[in-house]
What does this fold into?
Amino acid sequence: MFLVPLLVLSLLIMSCGSNVGEKSVSYNFKQGYAEMEAKFLENSPPEKIYPLSSFRIVLQLSNKAAYDLTNGRIEILNLPQKYFDLSTTRQNFDPLEGRSLTNPNGGLAFMEFEGFAKDLFQNAEKYTANYLVDINYNTKMEFQDTVCINTNLYATYDAGCEVDVSKSYSGQGASLVVNNLEEIVAPGSSVEFRIYLKNRGKGKIGSIDLSRADLGGKEMVCVFEGEGAEVRHAKLKKDKQEAILLCKANVGNQNSYMTTLSLDFSYDYELQVPGTLNLVK
Amino acid sequence: MLINIKKRYEKVLKMKASFYSLLRYFSFNYKFNKKSGLLLFKKRNGDAGNKGSLGESTGVEKLFKRRNDDAGNEGSSEKSTGPEKSAGKPGGKVEKIKTVVVGVAGSALSTGGEAIKKTAGAMRNFSLMLIVLGLVHFLLRFGQAQLSASSFIFSLFLFILSGYALSQAADKDRMAILIPMLLFSIWYFIFKAAISGPIAITMLSISIGLIGLPLILTKGKSGKAEALGLLPILFFFLDLGLLPFLAEKLNLVLAPAAENLLIFVPWWVVLGIFILPTEGLSGFSGFIIVLLKAAGIFLVVISFVMPAIPNWGHVTTLLPSVGQLQEAQVKVQERFAGKENPFISSFACISDFENYQGCIDKRQQEAAYRNNCRLDKDVKEGRKTVDECIIEIKEKEKQQLSVASGAVDPTIKLPTAFEFRIDEQFFPKKASVESGPLVYIANLDYKNPRQQEIKIDFTCRFTKKGEETFLGEITTAKSITVSDVAGTESVFCQPPAGKALNGRYDLVFNATLHNLVSRSRLTRFFIGKKTNDEKSEIISELEKIEGKSLNSFSDSLAPADPTVLIFGLGNSPKDPIISSNKNVILALGIQDSRKGKVEKINHYELFLPGVTGSCLVGDNIPLGSASEANIWNSGCLVNLPPEFAEIENFRKEEFESMVDYDYLITKKIMVEVEGSAQPQLES
It folds into this structure.
């Protein structure tokens, strides 16, 4: 009874191509969270490698974040030289463009490592080598939001805006995201922002630098909170990938108004991809 | 009043139309006998709705008649009462249609009940078939070291049978149960369980369509059937060895109870019990079936919950291939082949409160010994009994010390081995001098998988207890060189010329193997100069990469050769992590398997590129006491080269050692010449 519509549906589905990606001019790539994706190409390395034969490890690097990646370095770790000889264990890769209207899929690169498998130990049946591909790069994240500044809290005739004490965000298109923003107003003088940063990616952030902090075009004084943090620099521990940034600005006593808060961060990121080589008789 | 009549008439017509459609829905043929005013009906397949013929009295028709009797009417309208009477003929027909509807409804219910009974009956049959065939499949496969293609096909057949059995449980659209089974088969066997890439996306889209469309068209009624289709898939996996695979591939640490589940559960039987219907069963039998079903569900759940699941970052495909599953199953079965079913052991030891686990372990061990001895060549050929064999094994285990501090290399299945064997039918255990020259034959069986060139010198010696000892004469080649993978060399020993034997002697055959070479390997992780915190981080990272504790790299690995050189390298010899901000120690030892005796260590060497130290090489090593397996030890401090000392992250490396030695294999046998005592074999 369902056979004909099922067959028709199957044909329709199978004839569909892969999703190329959105090309809408209105799509904002700087939302959500994304990072570089790295995966091995099929059969590189092959499932089984034979002694005294060559092989290749090929990685496809695809930048799914909305920001360019620079200073990329890729290293293969934990492969014993007794069994595997790699032409090189470390390579740099060119900057990868982030996703944008002109490049909605993001930058793409292929990293290849040539290798040679040596002999097995005596008459062993096989040797399994678990290794790690360690990828490091620098990238950035830009945060912008419109906030209400109102230091005149007791004014009754101020028909301006209302201060949003706490706001949440879903991400800015990178692995480092601004999760929350708190605004604390000191009546008559200054405003303080607490920016909660978090790593939402699969890798690890080593350190974060604050490269710009503006409120309405004027620079703010910012400092990272926490042990070992410096004024505009924070080192993150591997087991705690979060940071809090405190920014202060003197705004004087005036009626409420909306203005733009802009923060630019740069950070180094480490992504690890495990792999296995099976050397068999 | 006219309006009332008209309304009633319209109502009758509607009821009539719906009544007839009801009859058709329940597959009735019907005929309205205008003369008698009776509506006669018959189930199309001749069901017991009315016993297969029109007009016969049935319980339904009795109801029909009773209703009419109650109305004082057997079909005519004259005796209609109340509103029917005022409506005249149409009212009379209303009465009849009403009663027939009741009768038909009753019949339909009884027909539905019969349908339910039929379904339960079919399910019961298939369940029983699944239980029986599942048991046969389990018994055929249990204890086999090798899974065969026929076993896999049998499992596939049970997969399809279980799908058909489960389809009986679905109320509607039973064939929908095949949809997930078919999709799984295509995805797993043809597309190799791909979980990424265009194939996976295409399969997912098709699956969603093929599963979703029937749901939409049947308004969700096919959902049950489709969900049931997942059960055969789950049990197919369990039967093939999903759990052993999880243990082997993902290095899960399994509790003994979980190991029992791996191998001793007949999964298709469990499914058969699970789908056994309880309709028709009452009282105790029904309770037992429900209990078994609950146990089956519990078994499946705990079989996945019990093993600890570590971080499996290396897995690129979620599901293994059939070959990988079978390979893992074989490995687990090899470990368990011959052991007693732990449920039986548990039951047998139930009264041993004080030492319950010890009792189970002992029974398991005895069962393994018994199984091994049943397969022993000497037992099969009647030279010794199973009990004698078990005693021998236990004796050997007491004496033998394994390559303990080094470990046996699991990747090398074929070690170098030499052993004398006596063919008793050709051996003159008891002879007379008058019978002619005495020739004593021993066979040296050897396995030389690495095809070493080994020179072997043969001697034999006669010893009379408390008296003389003299060398016998080897009348075959006294010295040979072997280099093939395996073989047997027969050695003839005769008393020396002019020497008359009289009485009992211990005859000892000796084979001295010269320049045997054994190698061992050791894995170490160099981390350079790191703080303790950094070291801890690296250790946890390495354990994630390797998928197991780094303690598994503590010992050197070697094949089960007669003698091996074990070694340890690190800040302490057994620590696999080496920091270069501490001293690095090299510790060595020679271990004898005690299958013979180490005569001489000619040379040893450790291959540690760039590493310097005073004990990396040695010649003509003096040996320690023969009563210990560890016959020699040494050690020294070493210096690491820059490539191991100055490391940014970490580096894994494997090192090798070799030992060149002479080894003595002996075989002692008591012989008697012109005496009455029976010769005895002594090893």
Observations:
- The longest strand of chain B covers residues 503-528.
